[in-house]
Design brief:
Strand content: 15-25%
CATH architecture: 3-Layer(aba) Sandwich
Bound molecules: S-adenosylmethionine
CATH class: Alpha Beta
CATH superfamily: Vaccinia Virus protein VP39
Shape: globular
């Protein structure tokens, strides 16, 4: 398994300038309902958010984390140690050790009411589309954040754009670098992610994969050419 930088630094993978925009949006609203993080890595953002709430408002809302926890060896233990380092009891966090797709299905009969969702799991289009199904559970007034919302990550970018185009009840609060923050202004009249959206993602996925692997091969062969020519 590949060792990730965050496995040793325990830091948030969200750059500081983006984090500041997120904290500013949260400061303005004081959301009290359940917060969901899809994809936690070493729990760096989770710790930042909980500490922010405790310092700013005296207490944190409940947090739910959905992640298969296979990003690096001993990921769950690392997240717990990181929480403890920040004086947060890991038992206060609800962890669903699962993909967001499976976790979503498992909660279908007793859906949570959410005030905040951070989508930061697998960035491939079919996974992001699954992650966006959770917005069904977001209460009006709640925030949806998409990290790595940039053309460099077409899976995140196109899924976010599609949601915005099809559902005018999601309005842009801010976009700082690759962190897009949306507010759900009112209840949606239909599920935000339909079977057609999922089919769209399933069809586009292999195309992106092919493009990425061709680009990688091209970079590799260019690199080999410059080594041969002594550049
Ligand atoms: C980019 S990192 C998350 C960074 C973290 N939010 C932060 O700010 O530090 C991606 C995380 O998504 C998780 N992940 C991968 N596939 C997933 C899926 N299908 N559902 C939920 N989480 C997933 C990985 O295990 C990893 O922990």
């Amino acid at each position: 398994m590949k060792m990730r930088q965050c496995a040793t630094t325990w830091e948030s993978e969200i750059p500081e300038v983006e984090m500041k925009s997120l904290l500013a949006a949260l400061r303005q609203r004081e959301l009290k309902g359940k917060h969901l993080e899809i994809g936690t890595a070493a729990g760096g953002t989770l710790c930042r958010l909980i500490r922010f709430y405790e310092e700013e408002f005296g207490q944190s809302p409940p947090f739910l984390v959905v992640d298969p926890l296979k990003y690096f060896p001993h990921q769950f233990e690392t997240v717990c140690q990181n929480l403890e380092k920040h004086d947060i009891d890991p038992r206060e966090i609800e962890f669903l050790k699962s993909s967001s797709k499976d976790a979503f299905s498992s909660l279908a009969n007793h859906p949570p009411e959410l005030d905040f969702i951070l989508v930061d799991g697998n960035h491939k289009i079919r996974y992001v589309t699954e992650d966006l199904r959770w917005v069904r559970f977001l209460r009006p007034g709640g925030l949806l954040c998409l990290h790595d919302y940039t053309p460099r990550f077409p899976g995140v970018y196109l899924s976010g754009k599609r949601l915005l185009r099809k559902h005018p009840n999601y309005e842009v609060v801010s976009q700082v670098e690759s962190l897009l923050i949306l507010r759900k202004s009112r209840e949606s009249s239909r599920p935000e992610i339909s079977a057609i959206d999922r089919l769209w993602a399933a069809c586009l996925g292999p195309w992106f994969q092919l493009k990425a692997s061709l680009a990688k091969r091209l970079r590799k062969s260019k690199g080999q050419d410059s080594v041969k020519s002594g550049l």
